[in-house]
Amino acid sequence: MAGAFNSNGEDEIFSGINIAPLVDVVLVLLIIFMITAPAIYQSAIKVSLPKASTGESSQKSPLSFTLTQNGELSWNGEKVDWDTLGKRLAGLGEAAQKEPAMVSADTATPHGTVVRLMDALRQAGIYRFALNVESTKR
Question: Distance between CA 131 and CA 120 in Å, rounded?
Fold first, then answer.
């Protein structure tokens, strides 16, 4: 029987549980998942980016668009219908118009689909955008 031995010869049952180590482990796991979740989530959309030797790194943008080879559009990882894209962009306001939009299009995406997205962005007043590429520089 687990317990502490008293000097009077009686056994007492240990009823307290130290949860401090459990909390430490849970917090470390939470931090690990918070750090790795964006990388896992971003790679959920399969896009083969075009290669370019002059590609430069850019800052993260809240206006991150992904076009798959099938023409499906995603905005920050969330699928967006082409019909509702204009309304959602119009609802952003003027502050978002100063942010650059990042467009990640698959190499097999038709040129017209990319132009369609760029046209929708320009109609919403977003004139700054960048095309995401895979750098071939080493």
Answer: 15
- Cα separation, 94 vs 12, in Å, equals 69
Q: Along the chain (138 residues), what's the average pLDDT of each consecutive run of 10 residues?
A: 55 80 93 80 66 72 85 86 86 78 88 90 87 76
CA quadruple 124, 128, 132, 136: dihedral, nearest 10: 160
Instruction: Answer yes or no: are the C-beta atoms of 45 and 77 closer than 8 Å.
Output: yes
In a domain, 31, yes or no: no
Q: What is the CATH number of the domain that holds 87?
A: 3.30.420.270
Q: What is the pTM of this model?
A: 0.61
User: Domain total for the chain?
Assistant: 1
